[in-house]
Amino acid sequence: DYLSRLRRAEPQLRSFLHVAEPEAMAAAEEVDRKVERGEEVGPLAGVVVSVKDNICTADMPSTGGSRILEGYRPAFDATAVRKMREAGAVVVGKTNLDEFGMGSTTEGSGFQVTANPWDVSRVPGGSSGGSAAAVSARQCVVSLGSDTGGSVRQPASFCGVVGMKPTYGRVSRYGLMAYASSLDVIGCFGSSVADTAIILSIISGHDRFDATSSKNVVPNYEEELVSLNYMEPKPLKGIRVGVIKETIGEGVNTEVASSIQAAASHLEQLGSVVSEVSMPSFSLGLPAYYILAASEASSNLSRYDGLRYGNQVAADELSDLYKESRANGFGPEVKRRILMGTYALSAGYYDAYYKRAQQVRTLVQKSFKDALDENDILISPAAPSAAYKMGEKTNDPLAMYAGDIMTVNVNLAGLPALVVPCGFVEGGNAGLPVGLQMIGSAFSEAKLLRIGHIFE
Ligand code: GLN
Description:
This protein is an alpha/beta fold. It has a domain at about 1-225: Alpha-Beta Complex (Amidase signature (AS) enzymes). It contains 15 helices and eleven strands. It has an eleven-stranded mixed β-sheet, sandwiched between helices. Helix 6 (about 195-205) packs antiparallel against helix 15 and helix 9 (about 285-300) packs across helix 11. The structure holds glutamine. Glutamine (GLN) binds near residues 101, 102 and 150. Glutamine binds near residues 102, 104, 147, 149 and 293.
């Protein structure tokens, strides 16, 4: 059923880089056989999932959206994928992304451009645009993505689905192609908060293959959802909600800002205490993020040398092999990031850029701590606008970067954030979805999911 819907939508959407039809059918039949024999099946038995193509899968290609990895097949499953498979999930394919996660529209894929299911002339957001479009168009039930600076949350908002960016370290990064290791997390998309909660419980937890993965106990997030009594008139009594002032003012689409205000009033009606919080360092996060992410990327991407993985351009000299393989394999945005990152890290500029950006990161962390001492959650839009037209920002990298203002600070602080659809703005045939971002303290995913559940 899912495969036929996937195939029907695919010519218009192009969400998938690889559809694993035989493998998916075999996995589904295996679940059927187990059920017939009365054997135990996992909590995701037969659930159709997709995986962003920068997350490794042993039986399918994993390109990271880059030509440099065309044809590469990893020898192992990422831990998050392994856990989903052990729970019975059927992996239906690999979803499109901006090359190595660098971008906000999925137009930066080395292979194809994905369309937004709400209006196919618009972008699905990025970099996990393929995953968001696939869940939105019901080409799969849930999808794994990655979020370094907003790549789960912003496409969730653009495509009208739920997107979860967990606390840094909540989910193992083993098998996720490194972009900026101090910011990268694997996250998930679902069409409901309940689906998202189920997946998060399965993929979370300590992993001996990722030293930064946390040993904190993993709650049953689905059970946690019903610990709020939604039948009461004021289920959110006592919850303090802070609206981040800097995220609803200048530079933000007015319809988007009013959807967020409406969501805040809704939370208030349900008993929470809503106030505005000012985070003066909020706008500093964006330049700091782009320095740090590019710096880490310039180092992480040095592994793509034409020898260890993927595509190789033959040359007589070893240095030419490196140069030609990289020049041919990487797209323009990746090259731009490597250049910026190498520059920021070079002797003589390090103090002015990298070190300063790290100092800003500390400031951002502190301002979140202060705001979250006073509030249980903070809210903002997930993006300053709804989905825009394809091509609108492709020639203006700075305008594209500016669109990440709502999300990057959360990664600098390593905090969890959940995006849920909260309204529509004009556009497309049926309006364009707007996502509400809810940010909490480290490891407060259960609280975010409980509150998010109210919006559905
Ligand atoms: N758009 C941001 C960037 O290009 C975030 C990407 C991400 O989260 N992977 O870096």
